[in-house]
Structures are given as C-alpha cells and as structure tokens.
Amino acid sequence: MPPVSMRLFALLSNVLVLLLANAAPGGAQVAPSMTEQASYTGLFAAAARGDAAEIARLSGAGADVRARDGNGRTPLHVAAFAAQRDAMRALVKAGADPDALEGDRYDIVTIAAVANDLPTLKAALELGCSAKNITSRYDGTALIAAAHLGHVEIVRELIRAGAPLDHVNNLGWTAVIESIVLGDGGPRHTATLEALVVAGANVDIADRGGRTPLDLATSRGYREMIRLLEKAGAR
Description:
The structure is a single chain. The chain is mainly α. The protein has two domains: 1-25 and 131-235, Ankyrin repeat-containing domain (Serine Threonine Protein Phosphatase 5, Tetratricopeptide repeat, Alpha Horseshoe); 30-103, Alpha Horseshoe (Serine Threonine Protein Phosphatase 5, Tetratricopeptide repeat). The protein is built from 14 helices and no strands. The longest helix is centred in the first third of the chain and has 20 residues, at 3-22.
C-alpha cells in the first residue's frame, strides 16, 4: 500500500474507533428514567424501592415476576439498575430468571459491571446469573464491557467467575482489545489489561483490520500497555 494510502487508512481507522467508542457496550444501557419509575406499580415499584417484603407478598399472591416494562425490563433488571440487592434476592427466590435479558439485551451481571457496582455484581453472580452470557446489541460479554470502561475490580471478579477471556464481539474486539482501543492508556485501563493478561487472555487475537493488541497499543503510544504485552510474548 502506498504511503499516502496507508496514512489515509490509519486516519479512517482512528475515526471509526472514535465513532464506535461513542456507541460501545457500556453506553447502550438505559436505566429506568424518573418518569418510568414514577409510573411503576406492583413488583416494578417494589423492585425500584428495594421492598423485599412487598415482593414476597405480591409474588405469593400471583404477581408475575417475569413481567416486562416498556423497555423489556423485568422487575429483576429494575432492582439491579437501582442496586437493590435484597429485592434482587427476593425476586429470584420468587422465580425470576437471573439470566433474563432486557430490551437492549443486558443481564443483571452486565448491568452491575457497567455501573462499576461490585456488591451488586457479586449478588447477581450468587443468584445464578452467568458471567458467560452473551449480552448487548454488540454480542459481547460483561467482561468486554467492563474492560472497555476500565473497571478493573469488576474485571477481576468476572475473571474469577469464569467469564470467557477471548470472546470476540460483533465489532471484532476482545476484552483485551477494548481495554486498549476504548481506553485512555492510563492506570485503570492498564491495570485492566494486566488483569486479563495475568488470567491468560490471548494477546495475539487481531481486530478485523488485522491489527494485534500490540499494534494497537503501539499506534497509540501506550508505553505501559506495550510493556505488558511484550512481556506476555505478544507479536
């Protein structure tokens, strides 16, 4: 490829990354708005305010714990967005599906991961929601979303829970790649990359343009990320 064409390709690639960053997995979640919360009744209202006793009473009287609001959220999703962990436990005890996906295809693990809410993430995992679920319109995982956002403690917890390290989403990116291309090269994203590398993530899976994580870190001048990748034998 001639030098001018290579420079143009690099420029277009960087523009594409910026566009995708604005539409990346973390940003697509939609928590219940104040208007929605004000309109909730029954289990949805109880979930939003964390009223476990009311959830038990309503579900015992036949209320549907798998009902959906206008955005496809179950009461369990509403409770997760509100970090109402006692409500989450009451809903699962009453029969709510811990792996259910809401309208934008998020589960309660990914909701907690994006919010950087470690206690809610742990509760979601304890309730049976799998860290292996494929979530979001990007066919990603909670681990990819957390890596994108640099939520390193969340990343470590998801790794402990068996999240797939090398899943490739429909953007062609792994958690390793997202920690680089959607990160800023700073301490949080570098620590995230390190956690993935230490856990055994494949550091040579390339993006759709054939660029490896090392290529991507080098092109951005992320020195500490480059060091980590080279130490891990990245090519």
